[in-house]
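As a warm-up, study this chain.
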Amino acid sequence: MTSKSIISSRSRFDAGTKSWGLRTAVALSSVVLTGCVSAWLIPNGPITTAQVWWVMLTSIAVGLLAGVGLRSPWAMLLAPLVYVLCFELVRPSGVVPTTGAFRLDNSYGILALLVGRGFHGLVALLPLMLGAGLGAFISRSSSDHTWLKAAPLIILAALVVGLAIGNRIPARTPPIVDAEGQPVPGSIAELTAVSLGGQAQTIMIRAQSADLPVLLYLSGGPGQSDLPYSRVLLEDLTQDFVVVSWDQRGTGKSYPALYPTASVTLEQAVADTIELTDYLRQRFAEEKIYLLGESWGTTLGVLAVQQRPDLYYAWIGSGQMVSQRETDRQLYRDVLALAERTGNTTLSEQMMAFGEPPYADTPYPNAAVMGLYDQLGQSYRPPQDYIDRGTAAHLGPWGIMGSEYSLVDKVNVLRGLIDMFTLMYPQLQGIDFRQDVPQLGVPVYIFDGAAELPARRDLVLEWFNQLDAPQKQLYTFDNAGHSVAFEQFSALHEILTGTIVPATYPAP
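Now compare it with the structure written out below.
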C-alpha cells in the first residue's frame, strides 16, 4: 500500500471516528438534557394526564435521536440508564416516601417505589427504549432489517400504544339511573374541580335532583380516596340528598395539590373544608349542609364544625376518631400483648424497635400495625347487602378500578395513601377531643361499631358521654367495625331520612 493510500485510509478513519464521536455526543447530550429538564419540571414524576403525555412524547423523540446517533441496539439500554442517572442526580431530595429513599424492607416501601419511580419509569423509559430501537433500526443497512431483530420493537410498540390508550380513557362517574336503567331527568352525576385554598381539588356530585339537602362526605386516611366506594355504597342517599364526595388536597384525583408540601397542614385542611362548604351552599342555594365523616374525616369534620357551626345542620360521625396519639399508644400495647400471647418474638422485636408512638414522619410503623387489625379486633360479619354491593361493583384494591379514575389517577390514589398520610398524620398527634372539643354547636349523631378496635371505640364512648351538644345520639351496630356508614349504608339512609333530617332541616 502506498503512503498516499495509507494517509487516505487514516483520514477516512479519523473522519469516521470524529463523525461517530459527534453523533454519540449529540445523542447522549439530548438524553442528559431531557433527564435534567424533567428533574427540574416534574421532580416527582408525571402526576397529571398532561404530564404523562409530555413525558411519553418527549421520550420517544429523544430516543429516536439517540438511536439514530448511536446506530446500535445498545442505545435501547444506554439511553434509559443515562436518563435515570441524570434525573435522580438533578432532582431535589424527595420529602415523601414515593420520591424519597428506597425502602424495600416492607410492603409500603415497595409500594412507594412502584407508584413513584416505577410509574415514572413505565411512561418514560418504555417510550425512550422504543424510540432508541426505532432510531437504531432505521439508521442501519436494510440487510440488518430482519423480523427477529424487529420483534422487540413490536413488543415495545404494543406496550407503549397500550399506555397511550390507557392515558386517553377519561375519568367519569356513571349517571343516576331509574329502575329501568335510564338516566333520571334533572339528576346530577359529575366530577368537577373546584379551587380550594388556591389549589384545584376534585369533588363528585351525585343526586336525583339539585333541590335536595346537601350532604358532604369526608373520607378517611389521611390520604384515602373514596370516590368509587361512596358512589356505590351511598347511592341510595342520592334519592334524598345531593351527595358530595371530595378528594381532599393530596388525595386521589387531587394528588397534584400535595405540592408544595408546605401547604399540607391541618389548618389548611380545615380551611379547605369550610371553603368547600361555602361553595356548595352557594351553588345549591342552601343555608347549611350536612357533614358526614369517616375515620380521619371525623377529625377534619369535627374541627370544621367546631370552627363554623353556623354552616352545618348536623354532624354525623362514622369510625369517629378522638385522639390519634392515645389510640396509637393503645394499639402499640395491644400488639405487644398479641405477640406475647402468640409467642411471636419477631413481632415483639419489631415493635420494640419502632418504639412507642408517635412516629415523626414515616408511615411504616403505622402500616405494620394496620396489617394486624384483624388479629387485634373481634371477628364479625357485616350485613350481606354490604358484601354483595361491594363485590358486584368490581372496584379492585383501594377502589382503583372505579371509573372515576383516569390512568394516572389510579396511581395517584396509591401515592396519596402513602404521601398524604406521611405529611398529615404527625400533625394530628396533639389532638384530643376529650379536652379540645368539650362541646359542639350542632346536633351530633355517631354511628358506632361494636366490633371496632377498643383502642378507638373506648375513647369515642368517653368523648360522646361528656360532649355538650344541642342534641346527640349514638347508634350502635353489633355487625359493624370501623367503616360503619358504609357497612350499614341501609341503616344510615333510614336514620338520616327518618330521624336526622326531620329533626334538623327547616320546614319549607
